[in-house]
Amino acid sequence: RLVPIVEGWQELENAREELADAREMLSDPEMKEMAKVEVDELEQKIPVLEKALRLSMVPPDPFEGRDIILEIRAGTGGDEAALFAADLFRMYHRYCDQNRFKIDVMDRSEITVGGAGGRSASGFKEIICQISGGDAYKLLRHESGVHRVQRVPLTETQGRVHTSAATVAIMPVAEAVEVNIADKDIRVDVFRASGPGGQSVNTTDSAVRITHIPTGVDVQCQDEKSQHKNKAKALRILQTRLLDAERQRLHAERAASRKSQVGTGDRSARIRTYNYPQNRVTDHRLGENFSLENVVAGKLGPIMEALAALEREERIRNL
User: Which of the residues 27, 117, 168, 171 has an alpha carbon 20 to 30 A from that of 11?
Assistant: First the structure.
């Protein structure tokens, strides 16, 4: 990690020495024209090298390269919020497909919403999945927060625009050595899995709920038909949530001395508004608008790149 920093520093020092030499040659009538060209080139090159050096000194996020747990929960807005949560899941699914990330749904609470004119649609009160891929955390880590939607709901008969919300949490998957959960600290309950409307979807007690007694955090998983697989998934989510709680605590301590614009992971912070009547998405951290059509189609690249650039600038200022 130190090699590019040292090499960048050496290149910058060499450029500064060459600039000093070129400026001295400006006083030589025979060398003046050539020296002037060299001075102009170096005066443009040095700021670029300085910025590159500062960037190389920014420490990498310790969780880069990790798989992530994505949690989407319906917030204010009732059934419309659940429909919006499903829309967000489809958006992230399309983005992951484009980047060849693998999505493994771990748990979901699905509802069916009936609308005007006999229309109906499926929504999620909550959906949890694991996203696997080398850059999953790096690209999606800024998505944590409150996502707000403004549109005419499926159930609206008067054509009025309503505002609803859903919360998104992005958490790096915990490694076993990071979160060691003792058997005595957990309670495992098993029950029969059920689908929408309470209908039984299997006839054995395959669903699992794990409660972490010291913190009160509980996780349930019923997406697999095997109790063993559901328990393994629930444990993975529990480990990840406990790691995330510690990560949030450490971040809060750091944020007490300085306020970061991006990457806070604050679940209560409104980060983005999806305005359907105006066909635009506003990211409030960037203060920029994007095409709603592109964003819901999973074309999140421009937003991700802008947020990454904003974070880099913020971290450089705080070096």
Answer: 27
